[in-house]
């Protein structure tokens, strides 16, 4: 079946994240974002795509040059739409959505309490463009503090328990968002399997 070219989200599962920022006046903003990806395995960079560069989140992170990406589990699914609504910049969206703040370690902007992981980021670069006269931006952040709940992370091998974390995901349809999560297949392949000598050239990065 052939479908319209722009309907990629109908076939690609996307993570649901909360991005928190502070306004120049210190007002706390939270918004859900799904168009997000790490930039290559050895880098500490992460990229967020935002449509319409006049959003509060974009204005705040451009001004403050910092933001937090909080990764929620399924239990926070009911907080997505309250933080997605367009409200005046002076509205504290933590209070609007009934979310609690998680103090950050390296930046002033707080994260969202109750999530399973948090990325404190400093702004690295903004790439602002237009496509068919529609403005969008790619925001590249440098992760300066990465934190994960102790009960889901295995320090010995760096793996994490997705069944316990129940990361919030979504797929799209013609009428809206369908929330879901992921399931561990219990199938493992080492990075070294990609290389002729069976050795991962980046293995040293993961050694303490």
Outline:
Belongs to the flavoredoxin family. This protein is mainly beta.
Walkthrough of the structure:
The chain has 208 residues and is mainly beta. It has a single domain, classed as Roll (Pnp Oxidase, Chain A), CATH 2.30.110. The protein contains 4 helices and 12 strands; from the N terminus they run E-E-E-E-E-H-E-H-H-E-E-E-E-H-E-E. The strands form 3 sheets. A 7-stranded antiparallel beta sheet has the order 3-2-6-9-10-5-4. The protein has a 3-stranded antiparallel beta sheet with strand order 1-11-12, with no helix packed on it. A two-stranded antiparallel sheet has the order 7-8. A hairpin with an 8-residue loop joins strand 7 and strand 8. The chain is globular and about 55 Å long. The termini are far apart.
User: What is the strand content?
Assistant: 25-35%
| Low-pLDDT stretches | none
Number of strands: 12
Tell me the name of the CATH homologous superfamily.
Electron Transport, Fmn-binding Protein, Chain A
Largest sheet: 7 strands, antiparallel
How do the helices and strands follow one another from N- to C-terminus? EEEEEHEHHEEEEHEE
CATH architecture: Roll
The CATH topology name reads Pnp Oxidase, Chain A
Fraction in helix: 10-25%
CATH class: Mainly Beta
Query: How many individual domains?
Result: 1
Span between termini: 49 Å
Count of separate DSSP helical elements:
4
GO molecular function, one term: FMN binding
Cofactor: FMN
Domain Flavin reductase like: 9-162
Protein name: Flavin reductase like domain-containing protein
């Amino acid at each position: 079946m052939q479908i319209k070219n722009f309907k990629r989200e109908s076939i690609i599962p996307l993570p649901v994240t909360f991005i928190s920022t502070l306004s120049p006046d210190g007002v706390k903003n939270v918004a859900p974002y799904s168009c997000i990806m790490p930039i290559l395995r050895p880098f500490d960079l992460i990229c967020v795509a935002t449509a319409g560069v006049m959003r509060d989140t974009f204005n705040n992170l451009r001004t403050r040059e910092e933001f937090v990406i909080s990764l929620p589990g399924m239990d926070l699914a009911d907080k997505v739409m309250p933080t997605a609504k367009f409200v005046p910049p002076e509205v504290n969206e933590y209070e609007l959505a009934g979310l609690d703040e998680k103090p950050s370690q390296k930046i002033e902007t707080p994260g969202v309490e109750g999530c399973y992981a948090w990325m404190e980021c400093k702004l690295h670069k903004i790439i602002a463009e237009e496509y068919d006269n529609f403005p969008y931006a790619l925001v590249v952040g440098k992760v300066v503090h990465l934190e994960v709940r102790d009960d889901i992370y295995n320090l010995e091998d760096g793996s994490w328990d997705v069944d316990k974390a129940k990361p919030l995901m979504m797929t799209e349809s013609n009428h809206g968002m369908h929330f879901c999560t992921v399931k561990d297949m219990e199938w493992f392949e080492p990075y070294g399997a990609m290389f002729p000598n069976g050795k991962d050239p980046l293995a040293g990065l993961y050694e303490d």
